[in-house]
Structures are given as C-alpha cells and as structure tokens.
C-alpha cells in the first residue's frame, strides 16, 4: 500500500466525522490512517472459551457464557434503581445487572432465547453477577465473523464518554482494512524475514488487530516488536557509523614512553581483566581515524581512574594534551590529587583549574596550555571558559556526566583540525538493554568486575524505633576512629519540609553527639542545598580532613566524594530514595581497609515498591543487578529522565520484557548496515523506504528521537 494512502488524514475514513476526528487527534494522537493502524491493542480478551455458571470461580475475571434469561425485575433502592435479569445455564444461575439505560434494555431483552454474554463477574452473598454484560443472541454470534481474541485498544475517559468505545475503534480498524484493498507493503528485507521466520507485515497487522488464535497473535506481535526495535536500532547504529565515517579524529598510532613506562613500572596494582579489556577497546578507538565517542560504565570503585589515566597517557605519547572534567570542585581536587600521585614517577605537567583558582595561577595555566607545556588539565566546568585554549587537545574525559554535548559544544579545541576524542565515565550502571536504546549511538565499555579483596559493605534495614541501637553503633565506630555519614532525603517539591526534617535530625544528632562537655565529644559537619557553595566546600573539606566525625547531609554528597576513613552510611527515610540513589550513597563507604556498613532507616509504613528496594539493597551490591530491578520498578522513562523518554516511547515492544528481541534487532541492524551502509541494494529497498518515511513523518514513529 502506498505511503500516500497511509498518510490520508483520519477525517477521510468512513465512519469518522469531524467530531470523532478531532477527538481521535486530541486523545490518541491519531491524525492519519497510519496512526490508526499503529494503534496496537493493550491486551486481548479471550473469546475462544465458554464458561459454565456452575464452575465460575470467585477469582474469574472476564468470562463468556451461553445461557438464557428467565426473568427480569427492577429493584428500587435508596441508592437508585437497577435492572436485574436472572440468567441460567444447565449448571446454575446468576444475575445480570444494569444501572444505566434500563428502559431500553428492558424493552429489548428476550426471555428464554439463548444468548452469549461476556463481561466481568462479581461474587456477592453466594451469587455471581455481571454488571452491564456484552450480549449477543447465540444465533447472531455464530454467524458473525468476529475474531476469537478480542483486542482492547488504548482509550481515555473522554473517548469512551463520547461514544468512541472499544467496539467503535474496532469498527474503524475494520473499515481501514477494507479500504486498504491491496493490504500493507512489506517493511523488512526478505532474507531477514526468512532467516528469522517472521510473518509478513500484512499478516502481522491483520493478526494483531484481528487475531484468529493465540498462536497467530504471538507471531504477529513478535514480528511487529522486532520491526519497531529494528528501526530504532537501525537509526542509532547508523548515527554511530555516520559519526565514525564523517567525524575524523587524530589517530593515536603510537604507544610510547609515558604509557609503557607507567604500564610496565608504575602500575600500583595489577589491573583487573575488565580494566584490561576496556583499555584495549579505548586503544583501538584512539588508533583509528575516527573520533572516539565512548561511554565508560563502571560501578563505584571499579577503578575508572586508572583507565582514564592510561588513556590520557596515550594522547600524551602522540604529542597531544588531555583534560579531565568533573562536576564539582571537590571531585576535581580528588582527581587531581590521585593523578598527581599516580604520575609521581613520570615527568608530566598536570594542573588543576576550578572556579576558585587564583587569578595569577589561572593566568599561568592559560599560558602553559597555549604554549603546550601543560600536559594534563583537570578541573570543573571552568575548563569550558573562553579563555581556556589548549594548544592541541587530543582527549577530553568527562566524569559522572549522564549525557554530554558539553565536550562537543565547547571551544576546547578551537585550534584543532579535528575534535578531541571523548570518553565519558559514569558510575550509574545502566542495564544493557536500556543502554542499547538510550546510548545506542555511542560505543560502550563496561567495567563489570571490582578489584580483588574488596570487602562487602554490610547493609541492613532498621526501623526508626531502633534508633537508639543505631546511635550506639555509631558511637562505637567513631570510638574506633571511623567517620559516619547521615543522609536525609531531598525532594524538590517539598523543599521546606525536607529542610525541616534535616534540621530536626541535625539537632537530635547534636544532642546525641555533643560537641562539648564530658568526653567523648564530637564534631559534626552539615551540608545541604541551601548553603552557599563555598560553605559547602568548607564543611566537606573538614570532613575529608577528618576534623569532623559525622557528616549530616542531604543527597548533595551523592556524587563521587572519596573519604576512605568513612565507614558508616546511615540513610534516613530510606523508603523515599530510589534504588540507584541508595546504591550511589552506599558507594560513599567501603573505600578504606575497614569493614563498612550501610544502615537504611525507615518508618514502619512501607509501600510494596519500597520493600522491594530495601530487600534488593540488603541482598546485593551488584550495581547492574540493582539497575535491572530499578528499571522494572520505575520503567525506562523515569529511570533516564524525561529527556530520553522519547526514545523509549515504544508502541508495541517493551524494553524490559522484550530485551531478547532487542538484542536480536540490534545485531541485525548492525549486520544490515555493515553489508550495505547506504541501503542501496535490491533486498534493502523496503528498509530504505521505511527509513525515509520514519524521518519524514516523524509524528508517526515518534518513538525515534
Ligand atoms: P571509580 O571507578 O569509582 O572511579 P577508582 O578509580 O576511584 O574507582 O578506584 C577505586 C579504588 O580502587 C582506588 O583506591 C583505586 O586505587 C583502587 N583500584 C582500582 N583498580 C584496582 C585494581 N585493579 N586493583 C586494586 N585496586 C584497584
Ligand atoms: Mg571515580
């Protein structure tokens, strides 16, 4: 069927007047025939089975029964009138009930004639009843060609109130298929259909809207899910390939003095296999002619820093500069310190540039950057200021940034012919299937192994009523020289409340851990969102230096700080935190040699989801496993923020349930594009056509961002 037919405005479908058209547009975004065609049912009612009244279960949901009405009466009660019919089959009797349209129904119901009824049953006082059943005379039912599995389409209250019921939508769909006399054209290449034994587009559409059996429906759904995921992946993979072929980068062909000397003589520990693998992947990228655009995922503590350093050394060995950008001053300082220490034996020039760098120092840095004598620059967003001009930036590493753009937009490499290679590091584990969709246009490296000898962080859940015991535990740990985090939730909408919670908590902790009086006394830091950045830094630094034993904070400490001596993480109102947040918070401890603890405090009132989150946290410390649970609980849109949800706005596939199909779709998308990058071959004609349509009629396949 030609695409012009499918682009026909929905107003032109028989049965759709201006009124219905405007409702369909407003409520379901159905503007064209194609939009209607792509309105896939949410679920199906099984009309292949007939139940007997005598064997109905209280748990039965929607059932279909053959029987007769024996008599009808109207019951008038305080709450209103209702029409009740007694319905019997050879096994028993039940009631059919109507609250609306009673007059019309009463006049039309036939006594002692076989009906097929369908609907939800209720069970009350030993009798089953069915409110507002769908009914059809058995005679007519047997003659109708309605399909056995009845689709239930997405709807809204407004639609059903305006008479656009499921039955009406179903009718419109039938009309659409009638008008599309020649059927719908194929959108996948033939060899692919054969290899994967997929049903044709036409058959799939027919069976998804008018399924003849469970089996045919399943095949239809599989085919359509595959197609949806295939085209998303095709788009992402293509973007990646185009990027690689169009955006040239400096090939770092040499592995030289800095890298070799560090790798052979100065590695402070043996690299894990995952670190080795990832470094190899990065080396390959850097050695090619394309600009690297790589996401490095590794759980907290998995050892991303050393990977960053080795990558930077490759840049240096090829005569280029490198930079590392972190989201906060504290993180930049920590990176700077650890890199300077690691590079102790190498003759490198490394500087730190942040908002608080003094003017004279700043000037010197600018100068050394431009004349090329500075090798590595570490810092905050201050790196992106206009005055910061590298002589030849070859590699930009961004830490803890979910999505970049920053590096691409910046003027970092204004003198370069090519943009620098970009490596983004994130400690937020993203389930693989989700990463494929959201970051499908990037290359991804994963460090999925922690360095050996890491002690597990003991994680427990405690109710608020056990607070005194928890305080005692804190006191014991501090007496051993440890430090403690106590974190309060911060949720934007109720900032005032959160602030009050935090301050109440702080006061009770000060009472419990007094700063003066008889020994032992305690020093407490507090950090929250309402403080000036400079004050925050000051308090953080006191804690980092060990001048305070307790850090009371809102989630501002979430990202990246490293205080190895802190061994206890208390999370207050833990039920209000998301899983990934809890995981990040827990990652703040367990960084030193001591046994560390994470205590999740909650009230007794817990939702089912909150229970799952707490159970998951106490069961596992595997960031990817936690991310999978998080994905199941929250759904992909929430997990990635609204920004990316467009990519995930799927019509028929489900990114969680259909992850296997997604993997297959991605591998085939890669296969198709590798073999035929321009989609020019005969067999890829349908792909090329569909692909062109996707870009042209964006509103239709709006799941492609
Ligand atoms: P993250 O991925 O969170 O940035 P880091 O790079 O800060 O992790 O590493 C966490 C800690 O583990 C550091 O103290 C680092 O020195 C250490 N580390 C990293 N890799 C290894 C390894 N292969 N063997 C032993 N310790 C390692
Ligand atoms: Mg780090």
UniProtKB/TrEMBL annotation:
Pfam families per the UniProt record, alphabetical: DEAD (PF00270), Helicase_C (PF00271), RecG_dom3_C (PF19833), RecG_wedge (PF17191)
CDD domains: DEXHc_RecG, RecG_wedge_OBF
Assigned EC number: 5.6.2.4
Boundaries of every Helicase C-terminal domain copy: 466-637
Signal sequence annotation: none
Superkingdom, natural source: Bacteria
Functional summary from the UniProt entry: Plays a critical role in recombination and DNA repair. Helps process Holliday junction intermediates to mature products by catalyzing branch migration. Has replication fork regression activity, unwinds stalled or blocked replication forks to make a HJ that can be resolved. Has a DNA unwinding activity characteristic of a DNA helicase with 3'-5' polarity.
Descriptive protein name: ATP-dependent DNA helicase RecG
Native source species: Ulvibacter antarcticus
């Amino acid at each position: 069927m030609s695409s012009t037919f499918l682009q026909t405005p929905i107003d032109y479908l028989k049965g759709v007047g201006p009124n219905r058209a405007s409702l369909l547009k407003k409520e379901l975004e159905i503007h064209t025939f194609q939009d209607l065609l792509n309105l896939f049912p949410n679920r199906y009612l099984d009309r292949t089975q007939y139940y007997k009244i005598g064997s109905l279960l209280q748990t039965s949901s929607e059932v279909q029964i053959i029987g007769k009405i024996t008599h009808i009466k109207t019951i008038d009660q305080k709450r209103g009138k209702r029409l009740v019919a007694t319905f019997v089959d050879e096994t028993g009797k039940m009631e059919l009930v109507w609250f609306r349209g009673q007059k019309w129904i009463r006049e039309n119901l036939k006594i002692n004639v076989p009906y097929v009824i369908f609907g939800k049953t209720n069970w009350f006082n030993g009798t089953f009843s069915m409110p507002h059943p769908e009914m059809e005379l058995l005679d007519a039912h047997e003659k109708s060609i309605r399909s056995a599995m009845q689709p239930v389409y997405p709807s809204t209250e407004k639609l059903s109130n305006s008479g656009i019921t499921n039955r009406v939508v179903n009718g419109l769909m039938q009309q659409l298929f009638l008008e599309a006399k020649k059927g719908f054209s194929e959108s996948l290449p033939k060899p692919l259909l054969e290899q994967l034994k997929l049903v044709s587009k036409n058959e799939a559409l027919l069976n998804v809207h008018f399924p003849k059996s469970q089996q045919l429906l399943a095949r239809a759904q599989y085919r359509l899910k595959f197609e949806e995921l295939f085209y998303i992946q095709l788009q992402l993979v293509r973007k990646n390939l185009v990027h690689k072929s169009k955006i040239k980068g400096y090939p770092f062909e040499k592995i030289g003095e800095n890298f070799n000397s560090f790798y052979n003589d100065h590695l402070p520990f043996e690299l894990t296999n995952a670190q080795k693998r990832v470094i190899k992947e990065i080396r390959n990228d850097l050695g090619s002619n394309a600009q690297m655009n790589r996401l490095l995922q590794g759980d907290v503590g998995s050892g991303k820093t050393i990977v960053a350093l080795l990558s930077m050394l490759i840049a240096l060995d090829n005569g280029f500069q490198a930079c590392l950008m972190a989201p906060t001053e504290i993180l930049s300082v920590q990176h700077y310190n650890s890199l300077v220490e690691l590079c102790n034996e190498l003759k490198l020039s490394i500087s730190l540039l942040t908002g608080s760098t003094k003017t004279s120092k700043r000037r010197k840095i600018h100068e050394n950057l431009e004349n090329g004598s500075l090798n590595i620059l570490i810092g905050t967003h201050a790196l992106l200021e206009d005055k910061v001009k590298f002589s030849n930036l070859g590699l930009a590493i961004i830490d803890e940034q979910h999505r970049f753009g920053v590096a691409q937009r910046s003027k970092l490499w204004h003198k370069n012919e090519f943009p620098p290679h970009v490596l983004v590091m994130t400690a937020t584990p993203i389930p693989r299937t989700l990463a494929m969709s959201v970051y499908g246009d990037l290359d991804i490296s994963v460090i999925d192994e922690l360095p050996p000898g890491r002690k597990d962080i003991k994680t427990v859940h405690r109710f608020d009523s056990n607070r005194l015991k928890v305080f005692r535990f804190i006191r014991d740990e501090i007496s051993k020289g440890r430090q403690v985090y106590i974190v309060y939730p911060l949720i934007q909408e109720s900032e005032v409340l959160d602030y009050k919670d935090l301050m109440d908590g702080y006061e009770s902790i000060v009472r419990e851990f007094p700063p003066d009086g008889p020994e032992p006394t305690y020093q407490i830091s507090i950090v929250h969102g309402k403080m000036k950045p400079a004050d925050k830094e000051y308090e953080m630094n006191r804690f980092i230096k060990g001048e305070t034993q307790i850090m009371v904070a809102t989630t501002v400490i979430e990202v990246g700080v490293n205080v190895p001596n802190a061994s206890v993480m208390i999370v207050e109102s833990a039920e209000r935190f998301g899983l990934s947040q809890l995981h990040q918070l827990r990652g703040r401890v367990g960084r030193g040699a001591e046994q560390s603890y994470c205590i999740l405090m909650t009230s007794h009132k817990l939702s089912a989801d909150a229970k799952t989150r707490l159970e998951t946290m106490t069961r596992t410390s595997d960031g990817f496993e936690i991310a999978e649970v998080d994905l199941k609980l929250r759904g992909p849109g929430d997990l990635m923020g609204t920004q990316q949800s467009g990519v995930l706005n799927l019509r028929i596939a489900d990114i969680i349930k259909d992850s296997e199909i997604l993997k297959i779709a991605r591998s085939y998308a890669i296969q198709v594009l590798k073999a035929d990058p321009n989609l020019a071959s005969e067999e890829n004609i349908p792909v090329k056509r569909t692909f062109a349509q996707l870009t042209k009629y964006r509103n239709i396949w709006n799941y492609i961002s």
